[in-house]
Amino acid sequence: MAAADEARRAARLSVAPMMDWTDRRCRVFHRAISRRTLLYTEMVTSAALVRGGARHLLAHDRAEHPLAVQLGGAEPGELAEAARICAGEGFGEINLNVGCPSDRVQSGCFGAVLMEHPALVADCVAAMAAAAPGGEITVKCRIGVDHQVPEEVLPAFLETVSAAGVSRFAIHARKAWLQGLSPRENRSVPPLDHALVLEMKRRFPQLSIAINGGIGTLDEARGFLGQGLDGVMIGRAAYQTPFDVLARADREIFGATTPVPSRGAVLDRMRPYIADHLQAGKRLHAITRHMLGLYAGCPGARQWRRILSEGAQAPGAGLEVLDAARDAVEPVAA
Q: Same domain for 121 and 224?
């Protein structure tokens, strides 16, 4: 249970699972900024693991921990087998996606559409827990979908699913509109209701509840923790302005005494990893595309982004591109 305990402690602050963004290279970069923050994989479907044999989607390095995996699916038996596989790969937390509104997810009858089927979610998580006793099963959900009334639906959902054994929830404080809004619009158009998530913590004090949605700074995260929530999950801001969100997290959220790293120190930590990646014949852009926001808000940030964006995609691009981008922005921003 060591990995599960590690993930549970780290859940005070987490970087949300984001498709096409939080791949293993992104996670290595985020880990170079914060040692303590909980990181998530991109969502992996149970069908891909069980029927497709796509275990490569779970590939990670122990250095990425504390690390959780997010699964998508709606068939209890298949999710149970997927959870067993994930636990065997060393994941201490296995999160079930009950919030993604994409068309692909809806066509598979999982993701946010499961907000309409809490009893099925309960069956799924119970089967997952029985199959993977070494990993804690958690749920990431919305406050409701379409014309549901969140004040009625969300507490009923939490009650039903927690009765099946889940004690940790991450709640995206927006509805998902399955009809009429694109996945991108669903991340920003439906109004936020942070107050409802805070009310759920008051109503269910025995549950560990993290809030997600529209949180852009570490100071905001500290504010929610100060109001009694157990965790804060940050998505786009952690990706777009990673240093601002994560650099002080170990000290200010987790009480570490280690120094806050400089942006230059983060680059120094990444350099050996990038060198190994290049030595294996892989492209620089696969890593540096996740690093464009490192100097966000600093003098020279535009040059940093331009040099990396253009140079890293060239055939044979190597560490000299990273060095050139660094020279354009430091020492002023370091």
A: yes
Give the global pTM: 0.95
* 31 and 112 co-located in one domain: yes
Q: The CATH number of the domain where 236 resides is what?
A: 3.20.20.70
For every residue of 86-103, DSSP letters joined together read HHHTT-SEEEEEE----H
- Within a domain: residue 212? yes
163-200 pLDDT, tens digit each = 999 999 999 999 988 887 777 777 777 889 999 999 99
319-329 and 263-279 helices cross at what angle (nearest 10)? 170
d(Cα 72, Cα 75) in Å, to the nearest integer?
A: 10
Q: What does the alpha-carbon distance between residue 187 and residue 212 come to, in Å, rounded to a whole number? A: 11
Separation in Å, CA 83 to CA 70, 138, 184, 212, 323: 10, 11, 28, 24, 42
Examine the domain organization and report whether 212 and 117 are in the same domain.
yes
Q: What is the mean pLDDT of residues 97-125?
A: 85
The secondary structure of 34-88 as a DSSP string is -SSSBEEEEEEEHHHHHTT--GGGG---GGG-SEEEEEE---HHHHHHHHHHHHH
- Coil, helix or strand for 232? strand
Catalytic pick from 100, 109, 141, 298?
Answer: 100
The whole domain housing 268 covers 263-329
* pLDDT mean over 265-289: 97
241 and 271 together in one domain: no
> For position 292, which CATH number holds?
1.20.120
**Best CA proximity match to 263, nearest among 286, 279, 244, 240:** 244
**Token couple for 323:** 């060095």
State the burial class of residue 167 (Cβ atoms within 10 Å of its Cβ: 0-12, 13-18, 19+): middle
- For residues 209 and 284, membership in a common domain is answered with no
Domain count for the chain, please give it.
Answer: 2
298 has catalytic annotation = no
